[in-house]
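Changelog excerpt

This revision adds worked examples to the README so contributors can see how folded entries look when concatenated. The first example is reproduced verbatim below.
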Amino acid sequence: MFKVNLLIFLLAVGMSVQIVYADDMSSALQKTQDCLRNQNCDAARTEAGIAANQKALEAVGGNARDMQELYNISADIMPILEQQAGGDPAKMQALMLKAQTDPEGFLNSLSPEIRTMIKNVSNAVEKNQAFGGKP
């Protein structure tokens, strides 16, 4: 469950960025993905963006590599959400709200490749936490 809850958190961060860039959906999607992958956008430098990044880092036990991998996966999921919502930002937000109440259903809606990537990061985080370290 850790993996799904953390991923939903990161996607929620992405959705808040999506709203900022809601000028043109294609452009907004690309900017959101770039922001998630690089954290070099204006939204990432706001108080909310910095706080969200800190929470994400804490959630992965302080391991920046695992956090970045989850951000990358979240960026990969953004086009899937856009497609499921027919490009409607309000529907994308509704999908995220639904994902918060049914994380397993959300996980099952993703491709096997993305589920495997999430599982791999989750396993790495759990392993690091079990050993009390952060490589």
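The second example, added in the same revision:
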Amino acid sequence: MNKETSHKRENISLTYKPLDNHPDYHLIRLLKKRKKQQGIMPKKSILEATKAFWLPIACLNVDTYSTEELEQMFWESLAQLNAQQELLWNIVGQALNIERPQMNAGFQPMVSHNQKKNWLFDDRDESDENIYSGLAYDEGGIL
């Protein structure tokens, strides 16, 4: 067995067709426009935006990565999320003349650093199950 076939793979597919009176319709159009103008694939944009938040959380819940690797993922994700926030302020905030609030540094941690329990998900293997996002969909998009 070669190295490539000894690893498992996960697959996710997304087909979403919102009606033109839904904000998600305009998101999809923007992603397609970026593909046409800048060669940026919509799937890649969606994956990068999702990974910026969820990747360190997902990797924290497996025993594959060292503390140093997890810390690097954490800081890279924070940098990506901060860049996304800056982009929002520079485009939408300025277009709407919204005054930028002062950010508060205080926060409440949800889980102690010493806890190993996965608080976000249970331990069932759902690889063969349909995952339900909790959102209701119809032919026009999210209900």
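Reviewer comment on example two: The radius of gyration is 19 Å. The longest strand covers residues 137-138.
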